[in-house]
């Protein structure tokens, strides 16, 4: 008869993702995140799925659950806006080489006539990171007039600078080219076909209890409304932020990309378009981006230390969310936290790196 202690040890040793529990629990103990939901996709299956800690600390504490809905913040950029642009590419309605002014003539003002859709997707447009919040105080039309009037900080294509403004412009292009606002376009062509049940902008009241609160606005905790102030001023719908979803939603989305644009018999993007979307481009002064994703720059710590730089791609969100995909290994790592709750502090960066390192080690053994 095998001793009980040996059986327990053998079981624990057989779990390749056992280190994730300790990593998340330590991050919670350090006060870096109130809780988290982690999913690992491997070879088109869910290899790991678990919720940790608290969804809410204030006004009352609530446990994190695996179906918690998160404000994805800048994950909106690739998942909603970037994918919508790629869907429009599939439809023959836009090309990466298109000048933005082809679809939005007023944008050409103040020297922006050479900015292309590709520049925006790569964050090499020369646009500022963020324009003044006051530009959004007069409503959507005034906000886009202000954006059309901006000057470039550098010539288009010469410098990588991560820009919320660039993706706000892309969100506007989705509406101008696709015929509906980015929230509706993404819902109709990406989220609903993929059965991403909780993915969307401006969550309805009936799911409020499942939403992870974020930080503070006017000294009140934000719940069910976008945390980003510019997206909030645009009625919650923008190209750079505003998307809410669960980790399960992102798992389905990731599987679609890992399956070359198709999931469960439903094709979202052509195989060649997924390649356009995710293949690396060199950016100056150094680094690699794809058309919507980080590949290998100063933002790539979520890759961890076990995956080869340049092979994968991913993105983070200011609220504490992240997604990293490694096509060669058929792996996706989804880490959703609300690290900005309850006081706009916290830090999910160490946790992202640690979990990715654990996953890399697990799949290589």
Can you put this structure into words, describing what you see?
By secondary structure, this protein is an alpha+beta fold. It has a single domain, classed as 3-Layer(aba) Sandwich (Beta-lactamase), CATH 3.40.710.10. It has helices spanning 4-14, 19-29, 76-90, 100-103, 117-122, 140-148, 164-178, 182-191, 229-233, 247-258, 271-278, 349-364, and strands at 35-42, 45-56, 62-63, 70-71, 200-201, 216-217, 220-221, 243-245, 262-263, 266-267, 281-282, 288-289, 294-296, 313-317, 321-326, 331-336. The strands form five sheets. Strands 3-2-1-16-15-14 form a six-stranded antiparallel beta sheet, sandwiched between helices. Strands 4-8-5 form a three-stranded antiparallel beta sheet. Strands 11-12-13 form a three-stranded antiparallel beta sheet, with no helix packed on it. Helix 3 packs parallel to helix 7. The longest helix has 16 residues, at 349-364. The chain is globular and about 60 Å long. It starts with a helix and ends with a helix. 49% of the residues are buried.
Strand order of the largest sheet: 3-2-1-16-15-14
- Full CATH superfamily name: DD-peptidase/beta-lactamase superfamily
Number of contiguous helices: 12
CATH C-level? Alpha Beta
* Structural class determined from secondary elements: alpha+beta
Percent range of helical residues: 25-40%
Return Rg in Å: 20 Å
Number of strands: 16
pLDDT under 50 segments (min length 5)?
Answer: 1-13
In N-to-C order, the SSE pattern is: HHEEEEHHHHHHEEEHEHEEHEEEEEEH
Shape: globular
The biggest beta sheet is recorded as: 6 strands, antiparallel
Mean pLDDT: 95
Distance between the termini: 28 Å
């Amino acid at each position: 008869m095998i001793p009980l202690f040996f059986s327990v040890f053998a079981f624990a040793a057989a779990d390749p993702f056992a280190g994730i529990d300790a990593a998340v629990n330590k991050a919670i103990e350090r006060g870096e995140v109130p809780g988290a939901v982690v999913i690992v996709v491997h070879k088109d299956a869910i290899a790991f799925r678990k919720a940790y800690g608290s969804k809410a600390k204030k006004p009352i504490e609530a446990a994190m659950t695996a179906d918690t809905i998160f404000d994805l913040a800048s994950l909106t950029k690739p998942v909603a806006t970037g994918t919508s642009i790629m869907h429009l590419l599939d439809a023959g309605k836009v090309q990466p080489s298109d000048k933005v002014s082809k679809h939005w003539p007023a944008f050409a003002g103040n020297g922006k006539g050479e900015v292309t859709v590709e520049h925006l997707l790569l964050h090499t447009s020369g646009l500022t990171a963020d324009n003044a919040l006051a530009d959004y105080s007069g409503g959507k039309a005034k906000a886009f007039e202000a954006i059309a009037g901006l000057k470039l900080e550098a010539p288009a294509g010469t410098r990588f600078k991560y820009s919320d403004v660039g993706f706000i412009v892309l969100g506007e292009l989705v509406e101008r080219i696709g015929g509906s606002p980015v929230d509706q376009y993404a819902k109709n062509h990406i989220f609903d076909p993929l059965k991403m049940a909780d993915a969307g902008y401006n969550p309805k009241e009936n799911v409020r209890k499942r939403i992870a609160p974020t930080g503070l606005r006017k000294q009140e905790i934000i719940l069910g409304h976008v945390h980003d102030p510019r997206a909030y001023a645009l009625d919650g719908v923008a190209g750079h932020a505003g998307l809410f979803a669960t980790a399960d939603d992102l798992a389905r989305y990731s599987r679609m990309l890992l399956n070359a644009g198709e999931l469960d018999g439903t094709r979202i993007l052509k195989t060649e378009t997924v390649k356009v979307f995710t293949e690396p481009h060199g950016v100056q002064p150094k680094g690699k981006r794809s058309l919507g994703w980080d590949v290998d720059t100063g933002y790539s710590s979520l890759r961890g230390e076990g995956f080869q730089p340049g092979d994968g791609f991913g993105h983070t969100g200011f609220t504490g969310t992240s997604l990293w995909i490694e096509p060669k290994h058929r792996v996706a790592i989804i880490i959703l936290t609300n690290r900005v709750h309850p006081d706009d502090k916290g830090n999910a960066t160490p946790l992202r790196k640690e979990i990715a390192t654990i996953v890399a080690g697990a799949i290589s053994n």
